[in-house]
Amino acid sequence: MGTQCRETLPPLQDLKVTIQNSCLVFPNQETARRESMFLSNIDRVLDFNVETVHFFASHADFPPQTVAEKIKDALGKILVPYDFLAGRLKLNAKTGRLEIDCNGAGAGFVVASSECTLDEIGDLVYPNAAFAKLVVNSLDSLEKDGKPLCIIQVTSFKCGGFAMGISTSHATFDGISFKTFLENFAALAGGKPLAVIPCNDRELLAARSPPRVTFPHPELVKLQTHLGEDQPSVPVFDATQEALDFKIFRLSSSNVSDIKEKAKTNPSARVSGFNAVTAHIWRCKALSHSETQDPDRLSTILYAVNIRPRLIPPLPESYTGNAVLTAYANATCKELQEGPISKLVERVAEGSKRMTDEYARSAIDWGEIHKGIPHGDFLVSSWWKLGFDEVGYPWGCPRYSCPVVYHRKDILLLFPDIDDSNSVNVLVALPSKEMEKFESLFHKFLSD
User: Which end of the chain has a smaller Cβ tally under 10 Å, C or N?
Assistant: First the structure.
């Protein structure tokens, strides 16, 4: 059926990257000064960096040195409409809230080179630990006024290709708004106007006054914080200390279509690719659990839902902040083992449908009262349809775009395939025995 479990050669561990120079880049013209930017309750629990790498083939008209100059110039330009990116995170002593100090302290820019060629790196889809060398999230020389919210590193390869590594605080963007940022960045790099005017008003997602929690929120858990302190930086799931196997399972476009067909309750029913794939990997992950074989054990899966079109009135598509909330679905192990895939897809779809305007506002208000983070057995993080590799720069679209990932047992990642946008790669990290079970179930449920 075209399914593959990628067994790759040992990943290249040293890209032989040398940093040549680094500097701060400032807005290239005066911006409308404001003291600080309000962060919503979604933004302020995301105080950690997201690192992405965008690989480009060589281009005769754009050697890496030229590209680096254009990227640096575009960074200065984009810090005008995205002025908050030149600021710094700070805790407001009066309110106890995390916010962005719009002090114009600048974004980071780094030029580096690698002794490798793109072909020597090999399979770009395979999230290589060495990719961490292609992005910088901290440089002492850039942090005299605090840690930059955005650092861009341009790394040239011996073949003339290059990588653009971008590190941003997750408090600044979600995946959708980061895609818009990239489109605007590409436009400015090509001497064009902004593709989209960004909406920087985070107060659109402020809690109601007084806050009203009108739904139970089992997908969220409270954290203990001291009075007057904002939410500490805590990951959704703690990194396990166990030794983990690491594999990528590829679902071809025909595999995805087959799962969708099996999930239909009637011939005219519409099933999304995300819901179908998520239901499939949910049952594999839950049933591979080594500790409990209890058929009545409840498994809870978490996944992000874009709330922009769900609010009343809808948020602008150009909203720059985090406008995704965590949806959940649950089922017993018996239901996951024996139930038809259609029922599991319905559970996933119900989690998304639950995210109405009132539910979203209730979740935001819950964060105002309790503070906390998403809570479940595991999270599906999807980069599948974000389309970072569709952004057209003056030197072309990326050969591939991906996040720098760190192996986490309780986070399953969905990535686009390099050749077929309707295929999907599922990145899994599990202890050896659980991985064996996951792989067996993955193929079994596909062939049922």
Answer: C
Mean pLDDT of the chain: 90
Q: Give per-residue pLDDT as tens, 49-74.
A: 999 999 999 999 999 999 999 999 99
| Domains, in order of start, for the chain | 4-205 (3.30.559.10), 220-447 (3.30.559.10)
Predicted TM-score (pTM) of the model is 0.92
Q: Answer whether 405's CB lies under 8 Å from 53's CB.
A: no
Q: Are 94 and 135 in contact (CB under 8 A)?
A: no
Classify 368 as helix, strand or coil. Answer: helix
Answer for the pair 289, 434: CB distance below 8 angstroms, yes or no: yes
Alpha helices for 166-252 (secondary structure H): 175-189
Closest CA to 124 of 153, 152, 157: 157
Per-residue pLDDT tens digits for 269-294? 899 999 999 999 999 999 998 665 78
For residue 295, how many other CB atoms are within 10 A of its CB? Answer: 12
**Is residue 232 reached through a cis peptide bond, with omega within 30 degrees of 0 on the bond before it?**
no
Q: Name which of 435, 396, 386, 6 is nearest 242 in CA terms.
A: 435
Q: What are phi and psi of 218, to 5 degrees?
A: -65, -15
What confidence tens digit (pLDDT) does each residue in 366-393 have? 999 998 889 999 999 999 999 999 999 9
Q: How many CB atoms are closer than 10 A to CB 309?
A: 9
